[in-house]
Each structure stands twice: as structure tokens, then as C-alpha cells.
Amino acid sequence: MSERRSLQPLPRTRRAAPQPFHGAKPPTNRDLMSRDGAQRRSLNPAPFIAGLLLVLLAAGSFVGFSLSTPAPSDNPNSGPEVTEGVTVAGTIAFGRAGSIWSVSGAGIRQLTTATTDSDLAWSTDGVWLYAIRHRTETGGRFLGNGKVQRYEMNVPTLLRLSAYGGSEEVIFDGLILGSRPALNWSGFMYGPALASDGRIAVATDYRGSDIGNDVVIRIISGDGPAISTPTLPHVAPFGHQDPVWSPDGKAIYYVQNGLSEGSSSSRIIRYNIAKKSTTRIGEKGLVQPAISPDGRWIAAARISARGTDVVIMNATTGEVVLEMTRTGKSWAPAWSPNGAQLAYLSASGSQASLNLASFSVAPSGIPNPPVIVSPLRDPVDPNVRPAWGSLNTAPVAESPAP
Question: How far is CA 270 from the centre of its chain?
């Protein structure tokens, strides 16, 4: 890379609408106004975006390139094709051109046609796929640069859909209604994670019908109306990101962000729900935790001066037992349902490739170096972390006519 990029969020500007953090550019935001029109202190920058700035760290040249524009393809159906000889067990959901796609078996399908879908997560049974979609809403007015201006809001909506696509159900809509439309408001929401009982952990500043000051881990009831906030330590205004449930549902792993000079201070925390206690896992500079189905391992993206690499850690001690990559250009790990494979993204020119790593565990209990293949011929959205569900949704091949 030509320069070292700080993971500290940049100051907000008043002209920019709230943005989902996009891998093509560093996070910026406007100074938000209070709903009564008075000047107020800026809301927390959405979760300290070490996770999605991984793309910047990995490629170093994404600024100015539209990541929502598909690369040229020979595929007449405009979608990525599965690499010959590769078969995916279960279903991997990924992003392309802002829409959600999935690959299962040796076939692919497009699940949504929107252009702002991201933050994918499966229900534990693999039947439902959750995602966050953003839409633009016109808000009220604020005084800036010597004149009154309208501001726009990028409103997040948490929705779910069938593993096969089709109709979509809104679980939580992020538009907060004021006494009149000009006083409507919105906040931030990232990284939903599903528990087996339907509870949803997210990184958000929503706290019911209002918003708080910081983006932290909160829990939404399965049907959406109720939000609770565990008492978790955080460094304001950097907050939390990347929540994930333990397989038994007794703990939540997440990333606590902070501020340091020249390196990342983000680190993985385990929250024991029953004991209401937290434990640090591993060293600083680890983000995007993914817990193996048996709970033994944590795959994560490790930030260094070189970029980001995928590593596997002991879930108890935090010790790194296997470096999946050493290129400084990999991020966004996701375990297969059987724990024998790991999906992750790597830089591919100005976009990203989806990779599958297959490995075994040695008699010593340490995972062996993996065999890595790329299941898709065409690139995927680098700012959308893949999610791997257990249900097989491979398109049924038509039988040849007799």
C-alpha cells in the first residue's frame, strides 16, 4: 500500500447523508440536527468501521470506484457462474451490485433486486435470510454554511426473506416518526446476528422509539418491536460492531472499538449473558469474528500494517492457531454449517473474490493448512460479508426429454 490508513472515523460533514459504511470510501457523515431543529452534538459515527475499511486496507486503491457496478462478464444472465467442479454444501449468500445472491450445490440464484442490500445473516435453521437495506428519506432543514438546507437520511430497514427469495418481511424499520414529516429521524444499524430462539443482536444506536448516543450491541426481539441494551463497556464514540452468538446461545461475541495511534485498537469481546460478564479474546486488531459450529474456533480478520488477513484462533485462549492468508488482502470469514470449510473474501482488482477454504484438524487438534478454491467465476461486492446457511437450496436440474 502507498500509505497507512487510520482506522479512526473521519470528521462528519453536514452535506453528506448518513451512509452505510461502504468499502469504497472512508466513513463520513453530517452533523445531525435535533428533531426540533436546534443544533445538537453529532451522533456517534456508526460502528468504528475497521471491518468494512478492510477493503481499503486490502486494496488501497478503491476510492473513486463504484463497487456497485458489476465487472464485465460473459455470462448472458448477468450473474456469476459457479466454477466447474465446485459444489457448495448448504447455501452461501453474498452481494453483487447491491443485490443479494446465493450459491448452493453447483447453481446460483438471485434473491433480491434492490441495490442497497448488505449485512447478511442466516437463521440457525437456514430457512430465513436477514439483511439490512437502506433507502433515502428527505428530512427537515438545518442551518449550515450560512443558509437553510434540507438534509437527507439513509434509513436502514432490517428485513428477512426465504432462503429461496420471494416476498420480504420487515422486522425493524429505522425511520423514527416525528410530530410531522419534517421532524422524522433515523439512525444506524449494522451486522445482525441470529440466536436459535429468534433474538437478533445488532450494532445500532436505536433503542426503541428513539436513538441513543453511541452505536453499541443491542438485542431485538424476534418479531422486531422490543430492543434491549446489555450493559457492555465501550469507548465513546467508537462503540461496537460485528456481533455473533455462540452456538449454544449463552454468549455474544462482538468487537469493541477504540482509539490508538498507528494501529487498530479494536478487539474481540465475549459477553456471558447469564453472568453479565465480559472477557477479552485475543490480541488487538482483530475484527469480524465468526464462531465455528462446535464453538472451538474463532475465525477473524486481523489488521496489520500490511492490510488484513483471515486467521483462526482458539475460542478459549484467543491464540492464533492458523493463518489462513498472509497476503494482507483477505477479510470477512464465514464458517460452513459443518465446520469443515470457511468462506472469505479477497481483493480481486477493484472488487472481491469469494473463496472457500477446506481443511482438516490434525491429531494435535490444530487445523491443517487449507485447500482454497474460488467457487464463483465473477466478482462479488467487497463490502458485503458472505453468510453461510445450512439449507440446501440448489436449483433442481431439469431432466432431459426422453
Answer: 18
Domains and CATH numbers, the chain: 54-132+155-389 (2.120.10.30)
Rounded CA-CA distance 44/188 in Å is 9
What is the distance between the alpha carbons of residues 304 and 296, in angstroms, rounded to a whole number?
24
Rg (CA), the chain: 21
Q: What is the DSSP letter of 57?
A: H
Q: Say if CB 266 and CB 284 are below 8 A apart.
A: yes
Other beta carbons within 10 Å of 363:
5
> Hey, what's the cell of 179?
410530530
- pTM > 0.85: no
Distance CA 328, CA 133 (A): 29
Q: Where is average pLDDT lowest: 44-53, 253-262, 365-374?
A: 44-53
Compute the mean pLDDT over every residue in the chain, rounded to the nearest whole number: 80
pLDDT digits (tens, 9 = 90+) for 143-165: 677 777 778 889 999 999 999 99
pLDDT reading at 103 higher than 60:
yes
DSSP E strands, 83-234: 88-96, 99-105, 107-110, 117-122, 128-144, 147-162, 165-173, 189-194, 200-206, 211-220, 227-228
C-alpha cell at 128: 430465513
Is the preceding peptide bond at 237 cis, omega within 30 degrees of 0?
A: yes
Amino acid at 102: S
Q: Is the distance from CB of 355 to CB of 336 less than 8 angstroms?
A: no
Q: Which pairing describes strands 240-245 and 227-228: parallel, antiparallel, or unpaired?
A: unpaired
Q: What is the β-pairing status of strands 189-194 and 320-323?
A: unpaired
* Beta carbons of 335 and 342 less than 8 angstroms apart: yes
**First-last CA distance in the chain:** 58
**65-79, 106-120, 264-278: range with lowest mean pLDDT:** 65-79
Query: Is the pLDDT assigned to residue 277 strictly greater than 90?
Result: yes
Helix (H) or strand (E) holding 244: strand 240-245
The CA-based diameter of the chain, rounded to the nearest angstrom, is 76
Among 25-39, 229-243, 267-281, 295-309, the range scoring the smallest mean pLDDT is 25-39
Say whether 238 sits in a helix, a strand or coil.
Answer: coil
